[in-house]
Write a structure and sequence with these properties.
Blueprint: E1 7-8, H1 10-14, E2 22-26, H2 34-43, E3 48-53, H3 58-65, E4 69-74, H4 86-94, E5 98-101, H5 104-116, E6 120-123, E7 139-142, E8 151-156, E9 162-171, E10 176-177, H6 182-190, E11 193-202, E12 216-217, E13 224-227, H7 245-254, H8 258-267
Parallel strand pairs: 1-13, 2-3, 2-9, 3-4, 4-5, 9-11, 11-13
Antiparallel strand pairs: 6-8, 7-8, 9-10, 10-12
Helix pairs in contact: 3-4, 5-6
Length: 275
């Protein structure tokens, strides 16, 4: 039986991401689809609940600055060596977005819970932190298997509407090779739909190759895949190309002001949609 094609173009891919959806994206070093991020900004998507897995960087800052995000959930948003993420910081200070503080283990726990089909996962490291004061949806309970008090934090499952990332390759059936980036596998298993841009599409079955199969997301978890060469740029893709540090430094400088951010969007083919 012939499988339905999961291959599409970039516009067809991002058409699955609708206003108000819960969108999960990885950290800047794990395969970010900057090509899809730019397409979403051009389209003017709105009111996203953005989950950064487990931290965010350039794409989160761009989406926030362009007015695409209503809620941000994650452990941090930063431009790394370039310092603070200016549009994120300004949005939080103005109260323009709902910030749902988390920790890296908590984000992963929520996604793993969704992957396993359970309503929550217990974690310990958050106990005693101020994060609990800002997350009334997290519950502290005693371990029911302990003889005496043994508190745990129950983190609810995070079930993204869409998981979006960039990967080195896919095959013509829609299987996607991610290599060692296991958080992308968890995202795909947890999400209702998975979308990816890739550097190349190969005419073989990645799952039939014993070396490639362990790092491959099976096509049954993939809704759509589009070829986008250098689709993570100006960020890097491990083993393929490095981040463009000059570009990132220029962004960090321009995005310090709303006017500078607007010029950056215009200079790089992203028209900021009217609010």
């Amino acid at each position: 039986m012939t499988r339905p094609s999961k291959l599409t173009d970039l516009d067809g891919l991002v058409a699955h991401i609708v206003d108000g959806c819960l969108l999960a994206i990885p950290s800047d070093s794990s395969g970010v689809s900057m090509a899809a991020t730019r397409a979403l900004i051009r389209r003017g998507v709105r009111n996203l609940h953005l989950v950064v897995v487990p931290t965010g960087g350039l794409p989160a800052d761009l989406l926030i600055g362009a007015g695409c995000v209503a809620t941000l959930e994650g452990a941090a948003v930063s431009l790394g060596e370039q310092g603070l993420a200016p549009r994120f910081r300004e949005a939080v200070e103005r109260g323009a977005i709902d910030m749902r503080d988390a920790t890296c283990p908590a984000v992963h726990a929520g996604l793993i819970a969704a992957e396993k089909g359970v309503p929550f996962l217990p974690v310990r490291g958050i106990l005693g932190s101020d994060v609990l004061c800002h997350r009334p949806d997290w519950r502290v309970v005693d371990n029911p298997f302990a003889e005496s008090g043994d508190p745990l934090v129950l983190v609810p499952a995070i079930r993204p509407d869409v998981a979006l990332f960039h990967a080195p390759m896919a095959d013509t059936s829609g299987n996607i090779w991610i290599g060692i980036r296991r958080e992308l596998m968890t995202m795909a298993h947890a999400a209702r739909i998975t979308l990816a841009t890739v550097e190349t599409i190969v005419d073989c079955d990645l799952l039939s190759d014993e070396k490639m199969a362990p790092g491959t997301i099976a096509h049954v978890y993939v809704t759509g895949c589009a070829k986008a060469e250098r689709g993570a740029s100006p960020l890097g893709l491990a083993g393929y190309y490095s981040a463009d540090s000059a570009h990132l430094a220029d962004y960090a400088e321009q995005a310090r002001t709303a006017d500078g951010f607007g010029r950056y969007l215009a200079d790089h083919g992203m028209r900021r949609a009217a609010a």
